[in-house]
Amino acid sequence: SLVFLNACGDSGATADPTAGDGATTGPDTTTGSSSSGALAESGQMGSEASTGSSTSSAGSASSTDVTSSAESGSETGQHTCESCSAELPAGWLGPIAYAHVTPGSSPPTCGSDMLESGPHLFAGLAPPAPAACECSCTTDEDNVSCNRAVYTGAASGEAQCHGSYYGIYNDDCMNVSVDGEIQWYAAAIYGFYYACNPQSSQTLAEISWASEIATCYVSPTSSGCDDGKVCMPPLPEGFEAKWCLYKDGDRECPAGTYSEKTVFWRGVDDTRRCSSCYCGPESGGCEATELLIYPEADCMGTPVAALSHSEQCVDATGGSIRPVSTPLVCGVTQMTEPQGEAVPTDPVTLCCSE
């Protein structure tokens, strides 16, 4: 009697890594092979949680042989099904193969129409240097308005002179009769601190990974195995010598065939920055303006006194006065400091055959 064996056709449902955890696709009803589309590349990845393994040019997961190449159904457009995977645990995607790629290098190709490019991941984030911060100050005296005045006529030592008032609006000579007492007042009235403008900058070192992770996953249209299993092609050249399952997050591996855990990353959260820097008066400005008192009118002769800003009357005599301004000099009052760090984000756990 004749016994008919199943070829690698469409008799079983297979895990679809693009359809979410534990999802399956039904039998392929078209002639030839079809593709459900590669997984989207979604970002960067980080440190590898397990030691690396050897690279293989061919191989397959531990499984039960389903059919020989002679029974592959190639005349009807079906793939060669060399073996079937172990039963896939619910909630995990795959099987998937991965390879370490030096950043900037070309990744190996999947090399089979039974394999599709999987997620782009990263391993081994090198801790980047903190932000390099700089701060300096510029001076804008146009933002400074000074209230400068002379009071005369009161007893020496009183809190304020009560006699004549003279507003001082520039550094020109002014004929003022100083007959016994005088008070010199000079202070900023608005905008003083706005005249000191901080100029800050920050430099961030580039993010660097030890390796990028290229992946290939078995197409969900590769059928020919019992429910819960996937028809396995040979491992692609240049990839680690093992098949894996994967799942977003840092997970514990399921018991059974796929129990060797490795964690990669999709991206990095870089919060490095510099704090604010602040500037303020360092020297000069309104309060630093001196008042020179001359013995004669029109500021003739040698000054007989040089007064600083004072809250009290002082003894003096003279025939004219002249303010002498000192330019405002701004300085850093609070230096900028580096803050934050760069850490890998969006872990992806690979559980591989040992």
Structure description:
The protein has 354 residues and is an all-beta fold. It is 0% helix and 44% strand. The protein is built from no helices and 24 strands. It has strands at 14-15, 24-25, 55-56, 83-84, 93-101, 115-117, 121-126, 132-139, 145-152, 165-168, 178-190, 196-203, 208-218, 231-232, 239-240, 244-248, 258-270, 273-274, 278-294, 305-307, 314-318, 320-334, 338-339, 342-353. A hairpin with an 8-residue loop joins strand 1 (14-15) and strand 2 (24-25). The radius of gyration is 41 Å and the shape is rod-shaped.
Keywords:
354 residues, mainly beta, seven-stranded antiparallel β-sheet, four-stranded antiparallel β-sheet, 24 strands, 0% helix, rod-shaped, disordered N terminus
The rounded Rg comes to: 41 Å
Low-confidence stretches: 1-78
Order of helices and strands: EEEEEEEEEEEEEEEEEEEEEEEE
**Average pLDDT, all residues:** 76
Counting helices, strands and paired strands, the structural category is: mainly beta
- Count of separate DSSP helical elements: 0
Largest sheet: 7 strands, antiparallel
Percent helix range: under 10%
Strand content: 35-45%
- Alpha carbon gap, first and last residue: 42 Å
Write down how many β-strands occur, each being a DSSP E stretch of 2 or more residues: 24
> What coarse outline follows from CA principal-axis ratios?
rod-shaped
